[in-house]
Structures are given as C-alpha cells and as structure tokens.
Amino acid sequence: MKRSVLLVLAWMASILPVMAGTDGQTYPEVNGLKIVNQWIFDRVHSGTAYTSDAICNQRARTATMDQGVIYVARSEERAVIIGNDTISQSVIHRFSAVDGSPLEDLPLYLDGQPYGRFLGVASIGKDSFHHIWVAPMTSTVQQYVPVYMVDTQTGELTLVVEMDKGDAPQRTDYLDVMGDLTLEQAECNIMTVAGSTADPGFPTLYRMHADQGGDWEGGFDGDPYMDIINFYPETKTGFSLAPVIKMIEGPDEDSRYSGEMFYIDCFDTAPVIYDFSGSVIDSFEEVDPELWPQSTPNGCIEFHIDGRDFLVYVNADMNGGGHGCQANICELGEGQALAGMTKYWKIPADSLGKVNDSGLRVHCFAVEYGVDSEGYEEVTLFTFKAYNGMAVYKIGRNVDAGQTTATVGDVNGDGEVNIADVNALIDMILRGINEPSGDVNDDGEVNIADVSAVIDIILKS
C-alpha cells in the first residue's frame, strides 16, 4: 500500500512546476530598517524540489544576480556528442529574482562549440555595468586565467583577458570584477587569490587592470601578481582553501572602480580589508567575539542604504554550530570600520542547509538597489551556498515584514502554497500523521485527495 501511494504521490508532484516559498520567519525592525524574505529555494524549506534540481550539485559552485535575474553556473552538466567526442557542456541556470521561478537555461559556447572545460564556470559574477562573466578554476600548471563575458541571449562566451600568473603560478578558484569589462564606460580591475588545499597556503594575489578605452596590463604597477607580507592574524603566511576576494567601491567618481581596497576572506579567518599595497587596513581584531564567523566559511559583500554602510558575511558554513549556511548583516562602525559593527539580522534565521558540499567553502552574495513607492531606498540581497540553497531578501523602510497567516494548503506553515507543501504532505501521509494543516479538503482525513487539493490550489494561483 505504501509503495503504491508513494508512486502516485511522486508522479503527482512531478507534474508541478518548481516554485519557491519563503523562509516563514519574521525579522525585527532595527533602527528604522526592515528585512523580509522574498523567496527561498533550499534544503530546509523546499525539500525534494531543491534536492532534485540541477543546481543542487557540487559543480554548481557560484551564482550572482543582475537586473532581476539570478544566474547559477554549473560546470560540465550536459553531455554533447560532437563527432567522436563527448563534451560536458557548462550551463547557466536562471531564475527570477522576484519570485524564484525558473527561467530558460543558458548552455554555454566558445567559438561556436559547446564549452566543456573542467570546472569551466567555477566562478560567475557581474561587473559594474551589468555584464555577466565566468572563469574556470586553474591549476598550478596553467599560466593564465581566462575571463569570459557571457552573451545572455545566446550563451556565447567572449574572451576578455587572460590573467597572467607571472612567476607564481598557483591554483585559482574565485574572481572579482569591478568596472566595465568592455572598457567603454569605465576602467576595469579583475582580481583573484592563489589558493591551496593545505595550510599554510600561498600569499599571492593576481590582478589585471585596464583604463577606459585602454589595454590590459598587470594590475600591480604593471606586474600581474603580488605577494602579501602583512596578514591578520600575524601568524598567517598565506591563503589556503578557496579564498574569496571582494573589491570595495571607491568614495568618489575618480576612484569608484579602482578597487584600491578589498576584502579577502579565507579558510582560517574572518574577512580582512587590504589595500593596493597589500597592507592590512582593517580586520575583526576589535570586533565583538560574538560576531566572529564559525567554521571557516568564505564570502562577503558591502551595501549602503539610508546613508549607512553594511557588511554581509557568512556566519557559518555547513559545519557551523546550530544552523549552517547563514549570513550576518551588520552596520559598520564609525568611518566604515569593522570595529563597532552592529548586528541587525542573521539570514535565513533557520538556515539554508547543513549538508557537506565537498568543502567548497565559497558563499556568494549579490545586491541591487531600488526605491519603494514612497521614494525610499531599498536593497535586494541575494545569498547562495552551493549544494544547500539560495534566497532573496528585501531591505528597506517599508518592506512587508509582517507575520505570515494560515492559508488553506499551506501544509508546512511557511506562508506560501507551493511544491514544498506537496512534499510535506507526502511525508505526513507516509508517516500516518493526521494534522489539521494536512486536511486540505476538510474531509477529516489526510490522504491522496488532499494532495490533489494542494495541486489544484497551486495550478490555479
């Protein structure tokens, strides 16, 4: 009996579109600002809808958001036969940043052929002018890091520049880009950090620079790399697993895209701010110990709203105490200092997931700016952790952060009726549980008829 029920329920769930719900949490208003989850698609809230999706894969390592679209890059996804060869083509999966609904996939091509390099899209991001880029992981035997711009209509890749490793060819994983990759509207800077699978790692940064309308050259006074000699903590001598770099926008138009200061977040410390000379400018040394991240996650981003400066950073990876794959959102201290930070929220309050992703460590963030109906600033914040999930939050004065209310068909109580409720109902039926939330058709029983009722609600919404 249970087997036949399971087969029927699995079939019924398979005909539904993937639809994201919310985290079901209410976050406090802090200093006049509110935050609300727009949608979430993850292990904790979405069940098999997420775990069976193509983005739930250890080769889907990074993601970004631009102009209302989420881009998740997955290396070596589609097997494409060309003559006697089989190419494992990379694909970018796209979702609406508004509600998390899936958009058309974007298979990638280079010179008209399927792009199938090993970990070919290990890193994806956007520049400051809405150009999407990708770059592969490179090993110690690869002298150059190719950076490609993506045609988001066709999937064709255009080589922008090959970052030279000079006399220090080490492994690279994740990049950051600031400015205009086309060099038409502004200068451009690209940076990455040498990584290692073991301590103490390497002290090497790679950087390429081009002026507006100019040519690419090494970004350290013409040199393509520089070794850091000043670390925090002082006992460090290099960057080990999957270091992440994030350039900080300059304070005025002349320095906005110069990337003269940047965060490096690596395996064994919290985010540290360096300057162009490689000197430590700021660190978590004077930060309240309660705000220190747990268990070696990597990832951070700044944003600004209402004249205030904020830092978003990973609180814990999948091995963190309590829940994992969460981020702290903190207002920076006086003078944009890390010391004196004030914590506003931790998102998601109940986690994206805690499943080992093979140790990828990287956690991706992206922000976009807008205004609400009354003309006040709003920030859209995207968070993504490989193999565990993703979500979008709105931050502002007037975002709706009210309590969710009970809704017919909302089996899991997250305020939405979607495929996550079908999964919750399937679990309830198989375990023989008869809870009021599962009796969708109000006939006094929890059974397959209730699944049909939920599906009908979803398809009519």
Distance N to C terminus:
32 Å
- Largest beta sheet: strand ordering: 7-6-11-10-9-8
**Helix amount:** under 10%
Which strand-content bin applies to the residues? 35-45%
Most strands sheet = 6 strands, mixed
> In DSSP terms, counting alpha (H) and pi (I) runs of 4 or more, how many helices?
5
Sheet/helix structural class: mainly beta
What does this structure look like?
- The chain has 461 residues and is mainly β.
- It is 10% helix and 37% strand.
- It is built from five helices and 27 strands.
- The chain has helices at 2-14, 43-46, 48-51, 419-430, 448-460, and strands spanning 34-42, 62-66, 69-82, 85-96, 106-107, 109-110, 113-114, 123-126, 132-135, 144-150, 156-164, 171-179, 188-195, 204-210, 217-218, 225-227, 244-248, 261-265, 272-275, 280-282, 300-305, 308-316, 326-331, 342-347, 363-371, 377-385, 389-396.
- The strands form six sheets. It has a six-stranded mixed sheet with strand order 7-6-11-10-9-8, with no helix packed on it. Strands 12, 13, 14, 15 and 16 form a five-stranded antiparallel sheet that branches.
- The protein starts with a helix and ends with a helix.
- The model has no long low-confidence stretch (mean pLDDT 89).
